[in-house]
Amino acid sequence: MGSDLSPLVVTLWVLNVLVDSGGQLAFKAAASEPGERDGMERWRFMLARPWLWVGVACYVAEFLVWLAFLSLVPLSDGVLLGSINIVAIMILGRVLFKERLAPMRVAGIVLVSIGVAVVGLH
């Protein structure tokens, strides 16, 4: 697949990582607001948060970008390359939300990154 990584494929791949990660982070931001809200009150509060709607918009964009990406690469390669989203989200979760990266998670990040590199270079 390495020779098949045209500029358009790479652009769609990077855009997919950005909008998918952005959507996940926006949903986390919408759900992480402090407060003692429960049940429907919590849901109403989240629905009023702009972060929730940023997340929805990112997912709509990600859907369209993913379809375009998959139209250019085999599904098996696309799904494996898409796994880098997990790495981006874990790292950004650490940076933005101070989430803990335990040693096993760091090992997972390294292994997924190696796997994506192998698929991208083959």
From TrEMBL:
Q: Where are the transmembrane segments?
A: 51-73, 79-97, 104-121
Kindly list any coiled-coil regions of this protein: none
Compartmental location: Cell membrane
The keyword tRNA-binding belongs to this UniProt entry's keyword annotation: no
Q: What is this protein called?
A: EamA family transporter
Instruction: Please give, as recorded in its UniProt entry, the membrane topology of this protein.
Output: Multi-pass membrane protein
> Superkingdom of the source?
Bacteria
Q: Which residues form the EamA domain?
A: 52-119
Q: Chief subcellular site?
A: membrane
Q: Does the keyword Cell membrane apply?
A: yes
Q: Record's PANTHER family? A: 4-AMINO-4-DEOXY-L-ARABINOSE-PHOSPHOUNDECAPRENOL FLIPPASE SUBUNIT ARNF-RELATED (PTHR30561:SF9), SMR FAMILY PROTON-DEPENDENT DRUG EFFLUX TRANSPORTER SUGE (PTHR30561)
**Sorted UniProt keywords:** Cell inner membrane, Cell membrane, Lipid A biosynthesis, Lipid biosynthesis, Lipid metabolism, Lipopolysaccharide biosynthesis, Membrane, Transmembrane, Transmembrane helix
